[in-house]
Task: structure prediction
Amino acid sequence: MKKKVIVSVINDLATDQRVHKTCLLLMDCGAEVTLVGRILKNSLTLTDRPYQTKRMNLIFSKGLFFYAEFQVRLFLFLLTNKADIYFSNDLDTLLPNFLISRIRRKYTIYDSHEYFTEVPELQNSSFKKSIWKKIEKFIVPKLDYCLTVNDSIAELFRKEYKNKWLVVRNVPRKFNFNLKKTRNELNMPEDKFIFILQGSGINIDRGADEAIEAMQWVNGILYIIGSGDIFPLLKSKIKELNLQNKIVIIDKIPFIDLMQYTTNCNMGITLDKDTNINYKYSLPNKIFDYIQAGIPVLGTNLIEFKKVVDEYNIGEIIIDFNSKNLAQKMNEIILDEIKYKELKENTLKASNELIWENETKDLKKMFYILLNK
Result:
């Protein structure tokens, strides 16, 4: 009889590739999986999933009441749906999972996608930050099965809580290039050097403002695809600077459609700023999507990003980051065809190594052990 695993996440499930890949890996290991999250007014329709899904419709969508409602609703769902393993994604789902696992004497797996207590949204509220930190300090030291997205964040947790952390970077599965559409089919210009900034969390301090401003001086095109808190402001800024002929902005789309655009671009950009600990040690998912799409990357000088760029020689790093310096770097990349060709070749090589199938060997062992206990 298959063991049941309930996987919890606070988002709407539609675009979270890490969680989707984790569910598929659990199924490969023999588990029966249910994924629970929430549904929003603008949520994309879920594509067919080989596992069960549950999206809760909440009354509140933000603020203290939202988080309180979500904790209660998730707790009640877990209480009325038995499982052998409870898999919590990020700190905002951990408390209900931990409590139910203790009540039922089952296992909890915790996957921290970021250094949650240092996210920008908590920096201006010491009260909210203190609550989440207390929850983390209460639960995390008691957990035996923890994973996170890069070495820097894992080391922070190891030092603070003295337990083991498995590093599983959020690399994509090998992409099927047989499905690739042409620029013409996607209505993309065929004679331009195209940069892309993608992501479901294009928020403040992630460089989108500077990218738009830089395009005033860049002899190329920029695609911005995804969602985020500042998306409406970005659209207004494009109009304000009269850059509609140089910047295309597209709201979030399914991952397979997103990758069609990405594979048709020339270079991906990631411009997070070192303004908080969470961003300082971040390793944005989009980097690996760019690599899998076979396009080099341009980004800011963050520790984990620089590690990947240096190891594989697949991109360029901008040190003194502002819009004019960014424009200069972008134009240098466009003009240096020899250098670009080298980066492109290295990226294609790296795309065969930096894939989910290689990254999750130890995670798969963990799942097998827990599912056979």
User: Anything to note?
Assistant: The radius of gyration is 21 Å. The domain at 177-350 is CATH 3.40.50.2000 (Rossmann fold). Residues 192 and 220 are 6 Å apart (CA to CA).
